[in-house]
Amino acid sequence: MDQVGIAAKEKTDCAWKSPWGAPNKVMSPCSLADVMSEQLAKQLQLDEENLGFSSNVDVNEPLITGDNIDTASDLMLAKMMQMEFDREFDTQLRREEKKLNGESKVSVSFENYRMVHPYDDSDSSEDEVDWQDTCHDPYRPDKPTTTPKKGFVGKGKNITTKHDEVVCGRKNTARMENFAPEVQVGDGVGMDLQLSNQVFNALKQHCYSEQRRSARLHEKKEHSTAEHAVDPKTRLLMYKMVNAGTLEAINGCFSTGKESVVFHAKGGSIDDQAVPEECAIKVFKTTLNEFKNRDKYIKDDYRFKDRFSKLNPRKIIRMWAEKEMHNLARMQKAGIPCPEVVILKKHILVMSFIGEKQVPAPKLKEIKLSSEDMKQAYYQVLHMMQQLYQECNLVHADLSEYNMLWHNGKVWLIDVSQSVEPTHPHGLEFLFRDCRNVSLFFQKVGVSEAMNEHELFNAVSGLNITADNEGEFIAQIEGLEKMNEDHVQKRGKKAPSYHSDDWGPLMKNSG
User: How would you list the strands of the sheet with 247-256, edge to edge?
Assistant: First the structure.
């Protein structure tokens, strides 16, 4: 037999010896009856058993006994199994402890019944957290010891009272944890920090002041009108005007003052009535910080005296806006050039815009006019002051070159919210102040025809007050104000009318 045949025979024998080897026996075909017979089934089972075990038994191999097996790791395995059992037992104890205690301030601990020491049980992070919840936390600073009711601890020379500097310092350091979250008190873990009573009280007062200041600033930001912005309530009112069609669009702010913020807007319509193409939205500031003395213009005005309430600033602001609306209506009825009132919503007054193409008309203070135009402007202002006092029964009370606009060759009066009637307790004083401002301005710009404040006051009011100096003149004005009955009688009288010939040729078109 050649080598190839011998190698094939050895390979076949090895395959039959291995229980996992696949036999190469060719299965002969059989009938269905033979397959279903029990004798064939038993014979096949015996063949498989003989094939699997009879040829694999080696009698030369040594028997397995307890002497030749390495059992050194059994103790370790037993300890690990016991540790696992103890952990399960401790877990069950924690569940029972948590169920028993619930949210009660007084708790029952099963710590003495635990089988695993906390430091040995380091594999489970959950167990470590549970242990920190029930035991002392090394990262939590120690609480200062409490002083007993008798007020001291120790004996003899070692007595320590509750007023001890060290004890108080540690207590003050612990109290810093009660400060507001926004106060950065730092981390003093592991350090014996001591704060004196003086330092702690100063820090406490500072934190309290900062909290109040922060709350005040937040409230001011939410509920007040800033210089170039409005509070949420005011913004909502303006949006409602746009949604209702009163205004088509609201543009930017073009003027700010001590009492209001003025925006430019495009007009729409109200009840099928056209609104001016360009409008001015005057939003009165809801804070009185910049104009605190405005109440004296309202509380003594008989039109608003009964409704005046010093305790409610928002009501004062609404009355202030309503006051300007009524004053503008009087001026418009008398033919004085002024903005036309469109609508009033609480503290928002919508008026016609004095200017063109979103550019407001310049103030007399800002514009440079020729001497002839400035002379015409002076006569117009004089005529408007007389109309305001005699026909409208009003005193502007804040008339100056900053509240007079020059538009289309005419002077326009604005900002009449503080205007009062002459019967006001300070009405004549306000009129004299207006006359002084107007006289000084036109004399400064070179109008030779401008009268001084005394002559202008008499020309506007129709009174004939003569005095050698300003002090006597003001004293007589105050005397007239005190004589309220005489003042009421005088307000119905008309001041001597001035003819246009005496004012100059250009007064015919002043209207």
Answer: 247-256, 260-267, 278-284, 348-352, 341-345
The answer on pLDDT for 23 being more than 60 is: no
| Closest by Cα among 483, 484, 467 to 432 | 467
Contact 152, 161 (CB under 8 A): yes
Catalytic residue set: 398
Q: Which of 375, 337, 410, 390 is nearest to 497 (CA)?
A: 390
**pLDDT tens digits for 289-318?**
545 566 666 666 656 656 655 546 677 788
10 Å Cβ neighbour count for 78?
10
Per DSSP, the residues of 342-369 read EEEETTEEEEE-SEETTEEPPBTTT---
**404-450 pLDDT, tens digit each:** 999 999 999 999 988 988 888 888 889 999 999 999 999 999 999 99
Burial of 145 (0-12, 13-18, 19+ CB in 10 A): exposed
How crowded is residue 377: how many other Cβ atoms within 10 Å of its Cβ?
24
Give the pLDDT score at 175: 82
Q: For residue 68, which amino acid is it?
A: N
| 224 bridge partner residues | none
Q: Does the structure show a pLDDT above 70 at 117? A: no
Tokens, residue 104: 């009660």
pLDDT at 19 over 90: no
Q: One-letter amino acid identity for 424?
A: H
| Distance in angstroms (rounded) separating the CA atoms of residues 423 and 421 | 5
User: Hey, which residues does 266 pair with through a beta bridge?
Assistant: 249, 278
Q: What is the DSSP letter of 157?
A: G
For the whole model, what pTM was predicted?
0.53
What are the structure tokens assigned to 485, written together?
């009955």
Using an 8 Å Cβ cutoff, are 485 and 357 in contact?
A: no
Q: Which residues, at least 6 apart from 470, have a Cβ–Cβ distance to it below 8 Å?
A: 454
pLDDT tens digits for 276-293?
Answer: 999 999 998 876 554 556
| Whole-number Å distance between alpha carbons of 392 and 415 | 15
Classify residue 155 by its DSSP letter. S
Write the burial class of residue 300 (CB in 10 Å: 0-12 exposed, 13-18 middle, 19+ buried): middle
Burial class (CB in 10 A: 0-12, 13-18, 19+), 395: buried
